[in-house]
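Quick one: structure tokens for this chain, please?
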Amino acid sequence: MNASDFRDPRAGRVVQAPGGYAAFIPAPLPPELAYDSSLVLALSRADAALSELSGLGRQLPNPHLLIAPYVRREAVLSSRIEGTRASLSDLLLDEAEPEHFADGDVREVRNYVAALELGLGRLRELPLSLRLVRELHEWLMQGVRGDQATPGEFRRSQNWIGPAGSTPATAPYVPPPADALMGCLGNWETFLHDRDHFPDLVQCAVMHEQFEAIHPFLDGNGRVGRLLITLFLVERGRLSQPLLYLSDYIEAHRQEYYDRLQRVRTDGDWPGWLRFFLLGVEQTARSAVRQASRLMDLREIHRERLGKKPNALRLLDELFVNPYLTAARAAQILTSSRPTARQAIGLLQTEGLLQEVTGRSWRRIYLARPILEVIEERD
């Protein structure tokens, strides 16, 4: 890490770590922020888009039908940023037929889903805190790459951010040394609980940047940091349902994302980072509204066509949770026999919603392709 790159002392300070390399300790929060006209406009637009999405979440007839695919899509995209190759179809097939995969990448994505669901559940009894952050990390890292990196525990040794093969001496960014870590985290948690001095979206952006700057775990920091965005907005009541996820935006602008974070550390460029973050919230929220509307329209079209066929209607709703279906899963959903389940599947095939995708006569898998196509759409 080149100490001369870190030009603004208000952003933090470079220290000499015990290993002889330079490391960066970010300045305590809160930062001094200047709200120019472009930042105010970006905040206004992001706020309006987020409010529209939150309002839509309150109107959903069955929020779980839309939350489940959103959570899984986010898990796939967030994990892909970290190098996994699993697709949304891989994850959904694994859930529909657990014996179908034994893939490590799918397990990583599945852990992300579990961690997010854990976090949402824990928010009912525990505020966002270092304790909850450790719990999220423990769930994320169980039984996957990096599980040797002390799941659920803050690091006791140095990490760094850089290309493969880099070292603390050559990496472009080295987070705080282990002996400075808890001081940074204590300040971060105090800022997290402040509800009186910042607009929620600005505080969320600052919270995320500082978490990434501290990089408190040996592995999995990026995924935890992205989880915290959604959990923060749900806790603050800015999202009625967990429908906003920024991983798609971050992946599409990955290099700019990393550059914006680094410029906060080197130049104290909070306005540049905030504008980038707020634009991501605006674009992602508007995209989520459009996607949710298409899914609700698709559901209503097929409900009308199916009429009074209760078993087929029950399966229809579950296809919005997971558009892959087996006879065994259908029987479980309907609490019925396999023949009854197959009859309901047949109705959905006749309707044109389901098609068999294995081409075999045993352990058949059916796919509601129109639903999957809407879930996978990227504006």
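The longest strand covers residues 12-16.
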